[in-house]
């Protein structure tokens, strides 16, 4: 492959990757892949990709100008490095374009499993969660409290309002389901699912992976020899996928 053609493809791929990440950032899907704390670093990466693409295109323009001014120095026959490097740049772009972006759902449970506790989560914030209004706590908050507080009876009867997707498990009865979310520390690859059991008479009418808002009161139950919070639901309403579907520790 001629040197100039190689550099042209390289510049186009760099620019394509830059545009891809910019569009993901604009439509809010970037945090479907990474923890939100890495957004500034990712934005820097986008800028860097754009600068690199511009540098390549500038080099090509200068090469053409030099060739027109000094035709005796024409080196179009020179060959570029192996095109394998271009394929390595193309693969992530093709995957990103062909595979629709979507948050992790119950299909990942078969490989990742799920937890009704809060593993790998520090207890440092438990005091702050304790002071939070009960209806403002998310699934992770409730699991933290039941993990790190010795007396969980103080939480029974409190009102809860959580958002998550529906997951049915064979271990539960027909009037029960799990309301679930994924917790992401770094990126979606390290995400793990957490779940709270819910008791509701209308469970049979729900669809797997449907996003819902569950409101009700908290009970303490034992699952797999662990104390976990269960919501005795007063209402289960359909909900849209949140702008941020993941929870962050």
Structure overview:
There is one protein chain. The chain has 249 residues and is an alpha/beta fold. It is built from 6 helices and 7 strands; from the N terminus they run ααααβααββββββ. It has helices at 3-26, 39-69, 84-98, 109-112, 126-131, 139-148; strands at residues 114-115, 159-167, 176-183, 192-199, 211-223, 226-238, 246-247. A hairpin with an 8-residue loop joins strand 3 and strand 4. It is elongated and about 85 Å long.
Q: What is the terminal separation in angstroms?
A: 49 Å
Strands, total number: 7
Tell me the structural class: alpha/beta
Overall morphology = elongated
- % residues in beta strands: 15-25%
Q: What composes the largest sheet?
A: 5 strands, mixed, barrel
How many helices? The count is: 6
Oligomer: single chain
